[in-house]
């Protein structure tokens, strides 16, 4: 879309500064272009900066992406598009960690509550028809491979809190193929409407948010959510709408913050954009520092924060360079 960040991969020097201010064992969640060249270079830069990168990425799938491919029809080539630019339906969230300062994950967690992710807070709730039966809760780890009994997440020990988090998140019921899963190997047809038993329910970010925060149900980054508070901006140049092209949903940022932190922890977003991370952080009672180089986006973020302050939250300020 002609933005500077389409042409630049965040350099190692920037990631070194992030590494410097983070606590040992702190986790970082990075979203960028899904292009293979960008992702591979981003991971290399993170490694060169000193981050541990040996973790699985999170894949967030949604239905609201739009294609950006150049149609070759007006060049006389019917049915063809330049390069390979399919409609985006998945966003990759890279997961990295500042190296431990202690000898083990256990020692690090006992030292500063880092080196861990809070997976129980990210469990996907069961739908009303579901029962937390065998194989819904986790995986079987073979003691022959070195796992002792205390380390095992047994598939016959269901957890009433919900399904163990996967590396896939689903929005908009996008995985609903019209079938209702009645058991791991049994399906029945449902011809129309949202199916509470669709495959989406195993990875449902929307259901997680609605169940975890029933007092703050929001849609995906809709026009209403993006623009909330902008009609009350007090500066001379009032932004009437949120023009940031990659606004993330509040529920996605809340999920990542819950994975990596506890109440009163400090959340840093060095590319804050229109401020969704800060809104999620304050909703979850975290402290927040955000930086944004674009003055227009900083103003939009402040307008959104002002609206939340009026509703009772007290977001920390966003600083513009």
Structural notes for this entry:
The model is unreliable at 133-140, 183-196, 217-222 and 317-321 (pLDDT under 50). This protein has 321 residues and is an alpha/beta fold. 25% of the residues lie in helices and 13% in strands. It has eight helices and nine strands. The strands form three sheets. A four-stranded mixed β-sheet has the order 1-3-2-4, with no helix packed on it. Strands 7-8-9 form a three-stranded parallel β-sheet, with helices on one face. Strands 5-6 form a two-stranded antiparallel sheet. A hairpin with a 2-residue loop joins strand 5 and strand 6 (186-189). Among the domains are: 1-116, no CATH class; 215-321, Vaccinia Virus protein VP39 (Rossmann fold, 3-Layer(aba) Sandwich). Helix 1 (12-21) crosses helix 2 (36-49), helix 4 (205-212) crosses helix 6 and helix 6 packs across helix 7 (276-283). It is globular and about 65 Å long. The two termini are 23 Å apart.
